[in-house]
């Protein structure tokens, strides 16, 4: 099969669809790999490393799409790429269709086959291709939240870890999934007082067992959320509805309950966000302020640490890329139920319930 790896052109997205090590495994199996010039440089992988393992460097994104049977990316195609996608072409990337009707309609029109990393699902319900980026985003949520709590950036002027004689900052985390647990781990490591909320008691019991005593768990309800946002300095939204839109757990009127300079970080922004006031931002212009509350809603948070993120992503996507390349998407999905759940749009038809429900 001919695999194409275009350069990501979303704002400040420096990750690349595959490392040189991943490409080596493909060319070893006699597959052809075309990669756009400088596609890997942002992640620390110059063109030379790709040519050394058998990839062919091409100058333009148009060439990559034109030559390839399968496109391996990181982020969803943007408007410039829509007309480049060929009928029957296989696209393997993060799509997050439920957050964009425009993207969904464009992929339906393209007559391509769209397999979304974020809905590939194991038998136990885990999402193996979403997990590493959720781990990165959960940890970064605290790193960024701590920064934007600083007064020069309009935050409350709170040091999350506190100092002797001064209590630590308070972090409220909505969702005890991968994002929430990683965020709690980072916040606890800084010495912050952490409250993590979820409606899944099994997850809360797990968190209670593995986290230190200054991480407390509480059942998530609107009443409890309204209570805690009045006293917490940083609020992290880490809820996930597989393939669907995130629920709005913090509404516009709740912002007035927060103290001026409170920071909210919405990691669910790719799925429409779990705050009513969420709007996607970029690393170039990451924050905005509503009712004196600082919002950080960058839609590709792991893109800020592309070396780490690209390695982590290729670790989990490569086995599936090899299956798709070796046998074609139909045989690969028939043989692997986990991969089959990644099918979102096939030849103009939505085949994933969460997307159909999102747009009625």
UniProtKB/TrEMBL annotation:
Instruction: Give the E.C. number(s).
Output: 1.4.1.1
One GO biological process this protein is involved in is:
L-alanine catabolic process
- Keyword Chaperone assigned: no
Q: What is this protein called?
A: Alanine dehydrogenase
- Species for this entry: Subsaximicrobium wynnwilliamsii
InterPro entries to which the protein is assigned, alphabetical = Ala_DH, Ala_DH/PNT_CS2, AlaDH/PNT_N, AlaDH/PNT_NAD(H)-bd, NAD(P)-bd_dom_sf
Q: Where is the Alanine dehydrogenase/pyridine nucleotide transhydrogenase NAD(H)-binding domain?
A: 149-297
Query: Where on this chain does NAD(+) bind?
Result: 134, 198, 203, 220, 239-240, 267-270, 298-301
Task: Write out the catalytic residues in the record.
Answer: 96, 270
Q: Where does substrate bind?
A: 15, 75
The organism's superkingdom is given as: Bacteria
Gene for this chain: ald
């Amino acid at each position: 099969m001919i695999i194409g790896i275009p350069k990501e052109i979303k704002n400040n997205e420096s990750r690349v669809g595959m490392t040189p090590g991943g490409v080596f495994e493909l060319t070893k199996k006699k597959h052809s790999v075309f990669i756009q010039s400088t596609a890997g440089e942002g992640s620390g992988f110059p063109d030379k490393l790709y040519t050394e393992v058998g990839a062919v460097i091409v100058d333009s994104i148009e060439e990559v799409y034109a030559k390839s049977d399968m496109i391996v990316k990181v982020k969803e195609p943007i408007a410039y790429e829509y007309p480049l996608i060929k009928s029957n072409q296989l696209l393997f990337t993060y799509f997050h269709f439920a957050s964009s009707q425009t993207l969904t309609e464009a992929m339906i029109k393209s007559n391509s086959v769209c397999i979304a990393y974020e809905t590939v699902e194991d038998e136990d319900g885990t999402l193996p291709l979403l997990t590493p980026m959720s781990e990165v985003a959960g940890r970064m949520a605290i790193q960024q939240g701590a920064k934007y709590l600083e007064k020069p950036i309009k935050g409350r002027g709170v040091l999350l870890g506190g100092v002797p004689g001064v209590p630590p900052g308070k972090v409220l985390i909505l969702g005890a999934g991968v994002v929430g647990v990683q965020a709690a781990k980072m916040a606890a490591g800084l010495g912050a007082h952490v409250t993590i909320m979820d409606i899944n008691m099994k997850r809360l019991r797990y968190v209670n067992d593995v986290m230190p005593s200054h991480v407390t768990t509480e059942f998530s309800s609107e009443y409890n959320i309204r209570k805690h946002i009045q006293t917490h300095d940083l609020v992290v939204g880490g809820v996930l509805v597989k393939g669907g839109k995130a629920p709005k757990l913090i509404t516009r009127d709740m912002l007035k309950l927060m103290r001026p300079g409170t920071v909210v970080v919405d990691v669910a922004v790719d799925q429409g966000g779990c705050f009513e006031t969420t709007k996607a931002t970029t690393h170039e212009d990451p924050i905005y302020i509503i009712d004196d509350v600082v919002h950080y809603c960058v839609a590709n948070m792991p893109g800020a640490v592309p070396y780490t993120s690209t390695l982590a992503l290729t670790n989990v996507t490569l086995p599936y890329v090899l299956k798709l390349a070796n046998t074609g998407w139909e045989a690969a999905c028939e043989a692997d139920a986990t991969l089959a759940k990644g099918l979102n749009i096939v030849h103009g038809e939505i085949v994933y319930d969460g997307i159909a429900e999102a747009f009625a």
